[in-house]
Amino acid sequence: MQFFANIAAAAVLAASLVSATNTVTFLNQDETNRTIVFTASYGQPAVENVKVAGNDQIKVEIPNGWQGNWYSIDAGAPATPGMLGEVAFNGWNDLTYFDVSAIVNNTDLNGVKTIYPASQLNTTSKVAMSGCENMAGCTNMYILSDDIQTVSTKETDLVCTLGGGNKLSTTVTQRDEPVLFARKFVLGKL
Ligand SMILES: *[C@@H]1O[C@H](CO)[C@@H](O)[C@H](O)[C@H]1NC(C)=O
Ligand SMILES: *[C@@H]1O[C@H](CO)[C@@H](O)[C@H](O)[C@H]1NC(C)=O
Ligand SMILES: *[C@@H]1O[C@H](CO)[C@@H](O)[C@H](O)[C@H]1NC(C)=O
Is the N or the C terminus of the chain less surrounded, counting Cβ atoms within 10 Å? Predict the structure, then answer.
């Protein structure tokens, strides 16, 4: 029985590795070279860390159903966890859940900034968005674990903005009344 359970688990893992239909595009908004460090939730496949050059972008494929988080480290800086991007792809009701969280490190004000579905790249008003381009006083994100700040989308391609100082980006002006969920949705604990 255990043998078959292992086979089944291996098959699920193999399937999740080949069907990497999810993506996160990291937009690096200043001259700082950065490394994105991914942390998979327990039982999830690892996603390799990637480097994104200053004022550049990189699109990272994420396995089907993946849950975990990421933060960015400035080139040359100590590898400390920072502001987190958290995601549960292809979750409950086939929605993808995401948020920006300051719970682990609320002093990282120039790493992960915002996350939103890729279709909203050029829209000035983003309906489904977490985080802020100006982190000072940002309330569109997790500050306390019992906040209700998890955003959902039917899309499986996300954008995560990084850096850029505390200037408001010209493309991100506000968040329109999104439907928000509790944190258990992004943590996969239903
Ligand atoms: C970023 O990395 C490139 C390539 O290694 C290097 O030429 C450049 O000077 C770096 N930029 C900064 C701001 O450190
Ligand atoms: C939080 O992030 C900032 C910026 O990356 C870093 O300087 C600081 O050491 C981090 N704090 C902790 C407790 O890891
Ligand atoms: C955003 O605008 C750029 C430049 O005009 C365009 O190439 C891209 O397809 C647009 N993306 C979306 C999702 O609308």
Answer: N
Q: Cβ(81) to ligand 2 under 6 A?
A: yes
Q: Are 133 and 161 in contact (CB under 8 A)?
A: yes
pLDDT of residue 3: 47
Point out the residues of the chain with pLDDT beneath 70.
Answer: 1-20, 167-177, 188-190
Return the number of other C-beta atoms located less than 10 Å from residue 54's C-beta. Answer: 13
Distance 171 CA to ligand 3 centre (A): 12
Ligand 1 contact, 31 CB (< 6 A): yes
* Shortest-distance Cα residue to atom 6 of ligand 3: 122
Tell whether ligand 2 has an atom less than 6 A from the beta carbon of residue 108.
yes
pLDDT tens, position by position, 55-107:
999 999 999 999 999 999 999 999 999 999 999 999 988 899 999 999 999 99
CA of residue 39 to ligand 2 center, whole Å: 17
Q: Is 105 in the pocket of ligand 2 (CB under 6 A)?
A: yes
Between CA 168 and CA 131, with CA 28 as vertex, the angle to 5 degrees is: 50
Cα–Cα distance, 145 to 59 (Å, whole number) = 29
b/e string for 25-34 if b means 16 or more Cβ within 10 A? bbbbbeebeb
